[in-house]
Amino acid sequence: MWEFETTLGEVIPRTPTVSSFRFPIRARNVRFRAGQFFFINILVNGQEAEHHFSFSNSPTEKGYIEFTKRITSSDFSRTLAAMAPGAWARLRGPLGGFTLPRKQRRLCFLSGGIGITPLRSMLGYIADRGLDYDVVLLYSSPSAQEIAFREDLDSFAQRHPGIRAVHVLSGGEVPPAWTGRTGLITRELVREVVPDYGQRLHYVSGPPRMVVGLQGQLMALGVPAEQIRMDSFTGYD
Asked: Residue ranges per domain, the chain?
């Protein structure tokens, strides 16, 4: 495990409510696996406060660590939103086993909102390394404006023949030129878009209620529990 002090390098708006925060790596041998998470300490009201976040960058994207967050009304979130480049932080990690499998290569990613972050890390790693995974992503967003990493996800699918990204709008106005899906991610949608779902390992990532709901949809299709991996993002229900 590594730990080091650094400063905020860059804030990148992803949607009107979601931003990525990048921190230069200032230590040696800082490694992590796509899909893992880390802890960050920042100063909130003059006191150190700690939170954990998934890496949203891939290990192939060198020189920095990035996490991505929807800005909420919490003190920690509001402090992040107000931070300027150069602000102090301490990073510690990596942790977690929500990572790519070494043997099973046929995967289905089901996600909503900010839950896309560990999956974006994994998809970027697969695309950058040209790994022989076959992945279908179903990603639900409340509106077209709130699709985080849309350009990245579409680029990964264009660059890698084994990646398919399906965007699903769960609310809001549907743009006239929209070619994706609408509604919720249901067992019927999974059956239609991923007909070989029974042969895939499923990664479910998002707010807790969504994760539980999607787990139920998969199990209703007969997907056994051992073929479902879950990562819940507390605080976003």
From this structure: 2-95, 106-232
